[in-house]
Amino acid sequence: MIAWLLLVPLLAQELTPLRVFVEKSAGPPSRETLPLRAFLERSVAEKRIAGVVLMVQKGDRVVFREAFGDADVEARQKMTVSHMFMMASSTKPFSATTVMTLVDTGKLSLDDRVSKFYPAFTGSSTVRQLLSHTSGIFGNNAPPEAVKWIRTMDLSIQQSVAGILAQPLAYAPGTQYSYGGASFEVAGGIVEKITGQSFDAYMKKVLLEPLGLHDTMFHSSADLSARVAAMYSSRNGELVRVPTLTDGLSRRGPRPAGFVLVAGGLYSTGDDCLRFLRFHLEKGKRVLSEQAVRAMRTKQTGDLKQSYGLGWNLLPDGIIAHGGAYGTDLWFHPERDLAVALLIQSPSVGKFQQEVRKLVLDLWQ
Questions:
Q1: C-alpha distance from residue 2 to each of 22, 24, 40, 135, 336 (Å)
Q2: Separation of alpha carbons 202 and 332, rounded Å
Q3: 78: pLDDT strictly greater than 90
Q4: pLDDT, tens digit, for every residue of 6-38?
Q5: CA gap 169, 155 in Å, rounded
Q6: 315: which of 40, 208, 319, 323 fits an S-S bond (Cβ 3.0–4.6 Å)?
Q7: Assign residue 337 a region: left if phi > 0, alpha if psi is -120 to 50, beta otherwise?
Q8: Any bridge partners for residue 126, and if so which?
């Protein structure tokens, strides 16, 4: 394991041109993984991405756990497997799992209407529809006056939900699929109503602590800037630094307090993400019932063409996945007993993610 000193900006060191830093933590490299390593190193050298962490678990064995490139280009800080990432929409499976703990205990039904918890709301939207983007509540393509209710960093969840539910429904519940974060925010508000706890505190109690996900969080009183990978956009062969939605003025990473973006506000590490994926592969041991896990990975969008479960995208090749706008990609393949956490901080890297997925599937049948 690389020393923790690597988490301090190495301002005095000179970088060797086109030489890509690699942290290897899963044993000696095997001949079989050389094409995968070469692809990741080349992608960094060509400035498609600044850096990346990739972790792969096959069965009970972690077969790949490596970091490539830089976490902070300007500070010459190398990427390590311990770095944290803003998960954006890869947060959704964590949040949906948290909601499902209440379904398991009988305190909530997927077919409960939102109006049961927010009587002023006159729509027929259900919890199931909230978690599958079919609730009629606006998606991310809504006008700014609607989207502001999930983009204002000093709101409470209940203030956000009040603003969301005051908007007219975008369509009749169950008739369309409209991907976005507002419906998940409402689900988070329902969790708070039932438990009497903040959503993030409840998630920590029922999910993060039981699974040992100690580096996964919405908030942190400590400044974790040195552990959080910076975000870069690749433009015309150059890396341009850009902020994330939740970056503060004086630091990056989890804020000390403020808005909990239920659909996309978590920070996490590769190790924590891999544990979470294994938990779902093992059908919910310790936290959820097998029935709840099965519901999450079952299509909940009816006859609509989009195949989405409860917080998971269901891909046609048997992969269950969720990506994030900032480059994270979490997925698992139940038939192959394979779990993969690909962590980047860069928007618009869909082609890169697909190339990594193909290489991983070719390697581990």
A1: 10, 9, 19, 46, 31
A2: 25
A3: yes
A4: 333 332 333 333 345 556 555 556 788 999 999
A5: 22
A6: 319
A7: left
A8: 113
Q: Distance between CA atoms of 71 and 73, rounded to whole angstroms? A: 6
Query: Which tokens go with 325?
Result: 């706008």
Domain definitions of the chain by residue range: 18-40+73-78+315-365, 86-218+249-268+284-301
Cα separation, 134 vs 165, in Å, equals 15
- With 0.70 as the threshold, say if the pTM is over it: yes
Return the amino acid letter for 339: A
169, 123 contact by CB (below 8 A) = yes
Q: Which ranges of the chain does DSSP label H, i.e. alpha helix? A: 34-45, 92-104, 127-130, 144-147, 157-165, 182-195, 199-203, 209-211, 270-281, 290-296, 350-363
**Rounded Cα distance, 164 and 147, in Å:** 8
Question: Is the CATH number of domain 86-218+249-268+284-301 3.30.870.10?
Answer: no
Sign of the CA dihedral running 200, 201, 207, 213: positive
Amino acid residing at 131: L
